[in-house]
Amino acid sequence: MVATTHSTTLAPADASPRKRLARMRRWLFRLTALVAGLVLGLLLVELALRVLPIGPQPVLSKRYLLPLDTQGMLEYHCYPSDPHGEFTSPPETSQGRWRLIDFAKHEYPLAELRDTPHCVEYRFEYAPFSRGLFKIRDRKYEARPADGVLRIAAIGDSFVFGEGVPIERTLGRQLEAKLGPDFEVINASQSGLQTDQEVELARLFAGEFGCRRAIVVFLANDVVPSQQLLDRQNLLTDLVNVRDERVGALRRHAWNAGPSRLANLIFSRDALTRVTDMTIQWYLDCYDPAQNADGLARLADAFRQLAAIDDCQVALVMYPLLEGLEGNWPLAPIHARVGQMAREAGLPVLDLAPAFAGQTTNELWVHTSDHHPNGRANAIAVEAILKWLKSDAPEFLKPEAPAAVHAP
User: Fold this and answer.
1) Of residues 68, 71, 87, the one with CA closest to residue 79
2) Model pTM score
3) Which of 55, 325, 398, 406 is most deeply buried (CB count within 10 A of its CB)?
4) Which class is domain 125-223+287-395?
5) How far apart are CA 9 and CA 387, in angstroms?
6) How far is CA 235 from CA 30, 243, 371, in A?
7) What pLDDT does residue 286 have?
8) In the chain, what are the domain boundaries?
């Protein structure tokens, strides 16, 4: 019997580890090449950003052009662009004395007016009262209205004043144009007023200027904050004026701040977003009784005083700060609380927030650096006010013989 020999060929004992090592080396090479390519790409982008005029857009706020020879009766606000076609060219500054400043009172050479060449003009007149003069952004009025004319005082702060819009696009002028020749609407406003200060204005215009009606416009920033709340304002924008120095400070202290142009470009919007979120929360806290009981008490008292003014019907209109109108408006809880307070005081109340719901917020701003309502926003407000007055408070628009007016 012949034995059959089976020959078996065995692979070397270390063949499998060698293959694994080779695969690991190939993957490591690919990973290294990928990382190196990514780093090189980032370095090239960083170099391009340093060479080319590309980077985070600076926050250039409006500037104030002041003719020094007009005793404060004329001024201009000047912007870097004209997004809605409502601005005009700057005035001729070669004659007379002029001053160009920003919100923080930093002064600029007049030649730098070229950076903000789109302007809004503000002309003022004095309303004479027994205790002094009040400067209004409006035409000159006699102490009493003509027979058959119902005079309405539009009282408020910068929204009523019309900061950032030409006079004919302000809330009062648009309301007067809609009401017709039997009505006068006086722009009895001043930037920065709070509701308790507006009570005295309503009394003065009712008692000495023949305003038998007053529309007081309320904003979420009209309550008096506590000292603790004031101490938190150091980096806030107020949701109206984007302060370049405040946003710049937050950017400098942000975690991503540094020499990298690329990082600054990627995260340039982060600072303003966080400032906005902080500001919204600050406003909500201002209407929290646990954090601002005294301020809310003063506001409730101001509403009661407005409702009690002699010979003048007062209506309260709540104008929304123009932030986040596309979805759930973040300041709605404030309007709900304030509306209840005003109604309890005996005032008729209109909340304009529903009229603005769903609007594209930035299309209603004066400018990206100035979130006051533009002319279109004021037109929306006027339509809502007229509809409300005609349906819910028709007696407000009924003409009446003017009561006796105290001499100034």
Assistant:
1) 87
2) 0.81
3) 325
4) alpha beta
5) 98
6) 47, 9, 17
7) 96
8) 63-119, 125-223+287-395, 227-282
